[in-house]
Amino acid sequence: MTKTARMITADIKNVDCVIEIVDARCPISSSNPMLPTLTKGKASILVMNKCDLADAEATKRHKARYEQEGRRVMCVSAVKAVDAKVLVDTVRIMLASKIERDRARMMINRPLRVMVCGIPNVGKSTFINSLIRRGATQTADRPGVTRGKQWISLKGGIDVLDTPGILWPKFEDERAAQRLAFIGAIKDDVLDIEELCALLLEHLAQNYARNLEERYSIKVAETDGGKLLEAIAKRRGFIVKGGETDTQRAAAVVLDEFRAAKLGRITFE
Question: DSSP readout, the chain?
Fold first, then answer.
């Protein structure tokens, strides 16, 4: 985290625009509160990724709210396709005044430089790879750039700098931390996955009960996550020696299936 923050601070003076990738299922919680300070003064684009996994109506509401705040927003599904031309056109529109200043100085062929930021597991690498497949002219380490960073040149005169995922040092909002754990931004091996799954099931029971019923063939008559986990374990036949339900195995399955979008399109905010 500290290394990445230092890298962004060092490189931000060399870029013209910042793209922050967030997860459309929890765009507020997956937006790093450190970035506005680290990237202050730079034009920015908010990319809501994984829109194919999120509740479509909720995504529309989030996009409208951000645009009312004056932010430039793109909604994408990077695993399917990101149109590099749309991104290039958006950047060039935002930086039109800079382009004119460069022309006045006879700096006609100078590429615009864009930094891509985001917390772990929001699909930042997938977004970058999608750009490479759909409009990049080359990918290479540039001389003078710290090892491990990579610039990507897109058709249209845009250079994109990838950065490692960065989390912030303290989660003041416990519910935001839970949402990040749901989507896998926090590693499962540092969490109690049964407790985490029970919290996920409670949210789903309150907001997407039909999704649970259709996926696990259970009746959602209550919102107690622990009891729902027990019901799913029994339904799937996860029984250990002595006849007890294997809720740990069930929790791992539910989390995996949620992250694989087998429970339908879900939003937490």
Answer: -HHHHHHHHHHGGG-SEEEEEEETTSTTTTS-TTHHHHTTTSEEEEEEE-TTTS-HHHHHHHHHHHHHTT-EEEE-BTTTB--HHHHHHHHHHHTHHHHHHHHHTT-TTPPEEEEEEE-TTSSHHHHHHHHHHTTEEEEEPPTTSPTT--EEEETTTEEEEE------S--S-HHHHHHHHHTTSS-GGGS-HHHHHHHHHHHHHHH-HHHHHHHH--------HHHHHHHHHHHHT-B-TTS-B-HHHHHHHHHHHHHTTTT------
pLDDT digit string, tens, across residues 246-258 = 999 999 999 999 9
Q: Is the pLDDT score of 73 beyond 90?
A: yes
